[in-house]
Amino acid sequence: MKIGIVGCGGRMGRMLVKQVTQTKGCTVCGGTEPKGSPFLGEDIGKLAGLDDLGVTVSDDPSALFDEADAVIDFTSPKATISHAKLAAEKNKILVIGTTGLTNEEQAEVTAAGNAGATIVQGANMSLGVNLLAQLTKKVASILDEDFDIEILEMHHHHKVDAPSGTALLLGKAAAAGRGVEHDAVADRGRDGITGSRKRGDIGYAVLRGGNVVGDHTVMFAAENEIIEISHKAGDRAIFARGAVRAALWANGKPAGNYDMIDVLGLGD
Q1: What pTM, to 2 d.p., does this model score?
Q2: Do residues 217 and 206 touch, judged by C-beta distance below 8 A?
Q3: What CATH topology corresponds to 127-233?
Q4: What are the C-alpha distances in Å from 18 to residues 8, 14, 94?
Q5: Tens of pLDDT along the chain (268 residues)?
Q6: Hey, which residues are catalytic here?
Q7: Which of 59, 74, 133, 240 lies 20 to 30 A from 126 at CA?
């Protein structure tokens, strides 16, 4: 399977190049960077710290989609929307790990899946995090509103969106478990005199610092007892492995919108 990497010069892009080369059944067919990038024209393998692959970095996503069976995207919301439209136009697979999309941006991505693209999208590509989301949904369905739900997350100081896409994934899983609309109960920031906590809310706490890859804890807190379930990511390679697995899984699937729960077979 021929896999292309958009944003191949970034930290995740380079990790994805390594992962594709290490995975049986697929090969890196190309990669892109924005116009003006210092990486344009470089060999993708060399850029990722590998031997030369004989494939150079370009600034033409359209040509990459022509060449690839699947493209993996951990870039930015604006770029991801453009890539989703290309995937729909060319009936290709697009695996999306980009987070921080607005509701309007997400609607455009979803529309691409309805227009010919095979899209696999995940706020987090790791097996462990998606298992944590399913556990969160189950626990939330069992415990009533006597248990306050709080989502705690920490990431490196370079991360630009908050709460993280993974934290929101977990919060939405908790809301689904309770049968409520997430946005109606989400408390995404507290500052000053806020008053007492509203029963049934799902709260978020955000920490940033150092080089933390990603730590997430879901806390169910009641009188005299607290239940915590957590996931700690030690290396971005877990996200790259999941993304490549998603691309291979999508091969031959009909156009549409899928997620990592589909890929991993963890649905109800």
Answers
A1: 0.82
A2: no
A3: Dihydrodipicolinate Reductase; domain 2 (3.30.360)
A4: 10, 6, 18
A5: 999 999 999 999 999 999 999 999 999 999 999 999 999 999 999 999 999 999 999 999 999 999 999 999 999 999 999 999 999 999 999 999 998 899 999 999 999 999 999 999 998 898 899 999 999 999 999 999 999 999 999 999 999 889 998 999 999 999 999 999 999 999 998 999 999 999 999 999 999 999 999 999 999 999 999 999 999 999 889 999 999 999 999 999 999 999 998 998 876 6
A6: 155, 159
A7: 59
